[in-house]
Amino acid sequence: MPGAIPNPLRSELDRRLPRIAGPSVLVLFGVTGDLARKKLLPAIYDLANRGLLPPGFGLVGFARRDWEDQDFAAQAHEAVREHARTPFREDVWRQLSEGVRFVSGELNDDAAFDELARTVRALDADRGTGGNYAFYLSLPPKLFPTVVKQLKRSNLAESEDGAWRRVIIEKPFGHDLESARELNAVVDDVFPPQSVFRIDHYLGKETVQNIMALRFANTLFEPLWNRNYVDHVQITMAEDIGVGGRAGYYDGIGAARDVIQNHLLQLLALVAMEEPVTFSADSIRTEKQKVLEAVELPEDLATGTARGQYAAGWQGGMYVPGYLEEEGIPANSITETYAALKLGVNSRRWAGVPFYLRTGKRLGRRVTEVALVFQRAPHQVFSSVDVEDLGQNSLVLRIQPDEGVTLRFGSKVPGASMEVRDVTMDFAYGQSFTEASPEAYERLILDVLIGDPPLFPRQEEVELSWQILDPIEEYWAKEGRPEQYEAGTWGPQSGHELLARDGRQWRRP
Amino acid sequence: MTLYLPRTTTSQISEALTAERHSVGGGALNMVLTLIVVTDEADHYDAVRAATEAGREHPSRILALIRRDPDAEPAIDAEIRRPGTAGPGEALLLRLYGPLGDHPGSVVTPLLVPDAPVVAWWPGIGPANPSADPVGRLAHRRITDALRAADPVADLLNRIRNYQPGDTDLTWTRLTPWRSLLASTMDQPCGWVNGAEVTAEPRYPSADLLVAWLADQLEVRVERTTSNGPGITGARLVTEQGDINLQRYDGRVATLTRPNQPDQTVALARRRPAEALAEELRRLDADEIYERTAKFMAAMLDRTEEPV
């Protein structure tokens, strides 16, 4: 039997065999950062521990530190011990650490990149990594041009003999349409579009992928999933923390650019999209793109949007400072820490159904969820007194924490009188599968190494999201200071009024 | 918390479980399956422990059936470990006395989680015909372990003759890491495979399954050679461009050698029962590849046993 395609040892029926990445080197820029330490390095170990990395795998760290290979390995070891999801096994670590290398240098230092090129080629020779390189830029976007140019200069960007090159970039993908295009031009210049993987770690979450399973694998929900039954949709991502150590990045960016542009609009796309023709990357992205193209802004941005800035207050038993008092934030900052929008989707399925999006820092608790709120029954046989306590039926997709799905509906209260009250039916991921759920980064890194793109947004989607957000940001910039809201509450008054105007209210998640 | 119900009946056990649900709320309805463990007093501790560990991935109601003195009066002693005692699922240890031991189906039927699939597991010596067994009949999936028998290969062959969709054996599950590594070596161009060899300790059915799998999928002749173990110690694919060789002598770390490439080491630990069981519970449909491979193995071994 010949090697490679199709592999005679693989069969569609043989579902015990996992997808394993091919021989490759992962080059990690920004290894000293928080993300690398808390998420990326542990995720790489977890993949190795689950047997999903090939024997020929190399991990190269690049940073300004004056480290040797073993210093980096020691750092990685500590990060893995502390943050890995799966139990620590010495054999797995030893095998992984044999392929760990470190290159020390500045990003604009030609010699350091020549050293990097030598290091990965040496890995090809010692470890059989096959000349396949993935570059993970865990760096601020302003450094991308430097790195990408250096990769080109040191001939690391070009592949030979069927080997692949992939580049992984993290959000933010620019801060408006123009900068997103510039950033893309820089990367596009060196890497072809199919080799660029934009990580939105939300899309790697099991619960987000489950949105598609819930909608398209079942018969129960899809018939209700349209304007005939849905009254409106609420998408919430609330954080209980303040701006903390990200002050330098956050000020001038704000909640809408930080969260709505990527996570919330991607969630909206997944919830509102039509059924893709197949479950392939292209079909899914096409459907998502169609929804984003159909998104419509409110006519009057003054009544269709809301923003706020957290003020000092008591939260979770602690007194916390307001945004303007945080270290590194100018006292006259007009950056919003709370943003809410009302969007429409111009399609036959969704015409007239508002999508309310909100995000904020220092809100009541940390929660991300999508709620479909259904219309009230067109006619009630029960008297209005009997159904006084009955709210609107709703289906809540809980993305984090406490991942799962909740269905709210009315039920008779036990007793002699006919009284109907809301009850919940609950499915919790934590109880039905838990431990098997991989971390989002595990899934995404594996997908990059295998070269499987469905969970990564395309440049077109990024640009469309900016097209939605840019007019709102321009409007806000003219409006001056955002409204203050007390820390630990569910946002400013204007946020509540946004729904109250339509005779609705936010769910308390 | 553990609740003891000596000399009880299944309806009393059901009542205790329902009362439990009412007092803590939620509970049993989230369970994804019922796992029946057919075991004995000596084995039950390890078996229930492995099942509980696997249950962390698949919250289940574990029903451990422990057979006691067959000459005693018929009775059930129940021990209920509530959810949260050991993982998210609950465990029921049922000790069956007297002739009741021959009719475990009557005890199990009222205690199955509604709608959820039923899996039967024999951690010790399993029945020769699992789907005809009184417990196996109730189950969608039947998991046996030939390695525990006095003659493991014969035990497995015996069972393959009675194969029904839903049967699997842990000797096949233990093979998955080997199979996935071998498959991944062939994801890269490697030239035509002309033959193969599998080395393992004698009387180790996993090795025979690996031989059958390679021979069947690659359509080549596969040698079976013996070593001192532990388990499988090596697999070799003979290709036009040279050998692809995977060797593991210590049961923990393997070395992969292939033409024109440096030697690579890879962690390839032998699997614990809980890991193997968790993998089994992940797939509740019939394993067609196992069926095909097991039948191929039976045919191969039958041929070699024929007098020349």
UniProtKB/TrEMBL annotation, chain A:
UniProt-listed Gene3D superfamilies:
Dihydrodipicolinate Reductase, domain 2, NAD(P)-binding Rossmann-like Domain
What is catalyzed by this enzyme? D-glucose 6-phosphate + NADP(+) = 6-phospho-D-glucono-1,5-lactone + NADPH + H(+)
Q: Which domain of life is it from?
A: Bacteria
Q: Name one GO molecular function term.
A: glucose-6-phosphate dehydrogenase activity
Q: Where is the active site?
A: 263
What pathway is it annotated to?
Answer: Carbohydrate degradation; pentose phosphate pathway; D-ribulose 5-phosphate from D-glucose 6-phosphate (oxidative stage): step 1/3
| Protein name as annotated | Glucose-6-phosphate 1-dehydrogenase
TrEMBL record, chain B:
UniProt superkingdom:
Bacteria
Ranges for domain Glucose-6-phosphate dehydrogenase assembly protein OpcA N-terminal come to 51-159
Pfam families cross-referenced by the UniProt entry:
OpcA_G6PD_assem (PF10128), OpcA_G6PD_C (PF20171)
Task: Enumerate the spans annotated as Glucose-6-phosphate dehydrogenase assembly protein OpcA C-terminal domain.
Answer: 165-293
Q: What is this protein called?
A: Glucose-6-phosphate dehydrogenase assembly protein OpcA
